[in-house]
Design brief:
about 10% strand; 10 helices; Rossmann fold; seven-stranded parallel sheet
Length: about 300
Amino acid sequence: MTKPLAGKVALVTGGSRAAGRGTAVELGAAGATVYVTGRTTRAQRSEMDRPETIEETAELVDRAGGRGIAVQVDHLEADQVRELVARIEREQGALHVLVNDIFGATTIEWDKTVWESSLDVGMRTFRLAVDTHVITSHFALPLLIKEPGGLVIEMTDGTDEYNAVNYRNSFFYDLSKATVNRMGFSLAHELEPYGATAVSLTPGWMRSEAMLDAFGVTEANWRDATERIPHFAISESPSYVGRAVAALAADPDRSRWNGQSLSSGQLAKVYGFTDLDGSRPDAWRYMVEVQDPGKPADTTGYR
């Protein structure tokens, strides 16, 4: 099998689970060395209190054919991020791909106005979603631009087009995800003179570990949940957006996407990758054309 990212170094933040884990593993499958960061280790859980760990993700990267390196980092702590990047430079001498996937909010107060919401909870959500990305970019990008061709992915929820006209049911969540989308646009302008590319990227309705638990299913029998939540039929595994990242990283012409807001389903059509089941779910088009107008669940033509 070809390894288009052999010799490349990636940093995937928030890699304990969900999109971060799926991305780290797919980059590993393409041959990359992947630094996997997060707060949850086998010895210590984050405030999310989930069992998935960065060590497990690193091992999955190894099994996929890459090299996984787990580093416990709280990306709100500037000193920890500074040391992380210094370590990558010492050990690898370069950074080719940065995936800013940090979120980790435990409580989101849905369907409350900004004045009804807890300010402490809301600001914590915003800091985890936004400040972490800013701090990481501040320290990591000087290493990434040492060589032309670098790639920055700002992982978010919702495309620019969708979020521009749809309120995401929480002031703080809505603002956070729109801000991360804008980061991809802003970084594109700052990185272009150095031959690097930045984009924002969203999965669709993702079957994260927490989502599967909430619906009482596993990845093996996830379709059982569609009996109660019919539109869950459009959902996708974390590997799907991971394959989107790997495809972008391996594309020598990826600069054509610079500054754009992208989705896993959109890129699957361009690059030809599929989800684990061989399908190509296009969740954001489905949301607009089927789910949001209140039509019955029907994924025909959407996966």
